[in-house]
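Reviewers of the previous submission asked for a worked example of the structure-prediction workflow described in the proposal, so we include one complete record here. The input consisted solely of the amino acid sequence. No template or homolog information was supplied to the procedure at any stage.
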Amino acid sequence: MEDGQGAWQEHLDPQSGNVFWFNSITKASVWEKPAELKTRAEINCPWKAYISDSGRKFYFNQQTKESVWVEPPELKAVREGLDRDGKQKTESTGALPTFVPPPTEAKKVAYTAFDSVPKEEITYRTQEERVEAFRSLLQQAGVTSTWNWEMTMRAIINDEKYKAIPQLSEKKKILQDFQAEKRKQEREEKKKKESKLREQFMQMLKENASHITKRMNWKKAFPYFESDPRYAAIPDRDREDLFLQYLDQVEREEQAQFRQQKRENREKFREKLQNDPTVDINTQWRTVKEAYKDDPTFLQLDPIDRLNVFEEYYKDLDKADEEKRRTESQARGKDSRKNREAFRNLLNESQEQGLITAQTRWSNFQRTIRDNPIYKAMIDPKQTGSLPAELFSDLLDKLEEAYQEDKKKLKAIIAELKFDLTSKTSPDELRSAVSSHGKFGEISEKHQQPLFEDLIKKAEKKEKQIAKDTERAHKKNISRFVDMLENMRNLTSFSKWEEIRPVIQDENAFLKLNDEDERIRIFNEISSKRKEDSSDEEGIIREKSPVSTAPPPPKKEDGDDRDHDRDRDRDRKSKKDKKHKKEKKDKKRKKQRDNSPERREKKSRSEHRDSSSHRDRDREYRDRDREHRDDRDRMDKDDLYRRRKQVEYSSGEEGERKE
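From that input alone, the workflow returned the following structure tokens.
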């Protein structure tokens, strides 16, 4: 069959995907279709198929020089006829050889389904393409991980792809990387194979599980399956280890099954507790234990597991109950906030209507809203937060602040107008005096009349205080003048006012007392007293106290004293016990009263009433303290002066004695 059609066989290059032909007689491989195999239709068809540089197939007409991307109908008809002939031939002759070495010429860049074009030199655009071509050559040549460079070079040196990498060192580097990947693949394949053999060995042990127990050793076990081919596929050194691993796995599976069964029993017992209406948050463990003592699910559990299931369920009940209480508390809190907001609106409306002013008392206002449903909702025992009296006090503080601001404005107007405000001034006179001022309109109309009355009362208090201060100062001046005269060492019962006056006329005590008649009167009184004291010293007689002649009281017996002391101690102890019991009972009764809503509301009213009265008293106390502080400062200055004079007088007398 030399040079005949039967010598040529069509093959597909697995690396490039191109078709080539192999001559079984000459052992030659070519990319171009031999002339012996061409049909008349192939020879007469002017269309040829090519591949562009971008890798896309196009078609060229050799007669008309036309190029198209779509396959022409003539070429398609020829290709379909060849495909049918090739299929029939394959079915009749059988499969082609699995591998025939492709031709060593350069890779074809233009081809047709029925003919070939002249081969062109392979070009590579990037370094990656060069490396990939060389690696495909190694793969195509069947290079293994154990080949050295000489063996590899003999297999690939005649291929055109060998020239893709020009440097020898780079070729060797690609070969090393290629062989490293090969070794990695071989290891993975070996590992997969060993893993599969191990799985088959473990499956063999599972199939013989009826002959294997947890206490059995390897020597007793292997005779049951040594004839199995899966036994022989495992090396001797690994068989016993796999057998021990199998025993461990069986034990773990049994433990897992036991835990799973235990978990299911716990869940069943918990479901029974959940479906039992008699078990709630107040149920005790001993009650549940007694109720389920004959239950099969209960008996399957260990005592500690039973208790744990109950405790977990009880915690869930407690959490649910707490969540319920929290929800109810939030609902109550929400209702309480609504009630407080409604009561604040009621207070604001009453304040706008003039029912509440800065001088209004809670007890008076409470009587007007006692039957109001908003007030009744605020004193409900379930109500939380601030009490009505506290909210009223907050509003009153705001009104008091506004009232004080208007009071400052009115005082500034009076001071600017220099109006003489006295206790005899009437509110109408004060209004007519300040109403013409430009800033009077800034004062709230509802505060005007109370402010007028308040300022007039304050002016009256001030006048009274001034009178008191004047009288007190006059008494102090008299006292200082008296002290000064009494401390004078040259004042005797025979002294004359005309003689003493020049001596003391420059003293502060003399100057403070402006009334000359009062000075003379005090001098005469002191002078008369000095005369009386001197006469008393001359005629004084000391009398001795008389001696008592009354007989002494009779003595008591010792026994009588002891009985008396014992009775007295007994009475004291009895009284003390009665007092203690009474205090305890009163304390308990008082606690019950204090916890009642009525007592709570009464206490709030009392506190508010006290706070209101305390506010008024505090203002009065502040004014009084300021006045007392001023008086104390003046008294301290006068006292310091008097002490200085006393020191001077005493030092003068001491000097005279020495002389």
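Residues 87-100, 104-120, 540-560 have pLDDT under 50 and may be disordered. We consider this example representative of the routine output the project will generate in years two and three.
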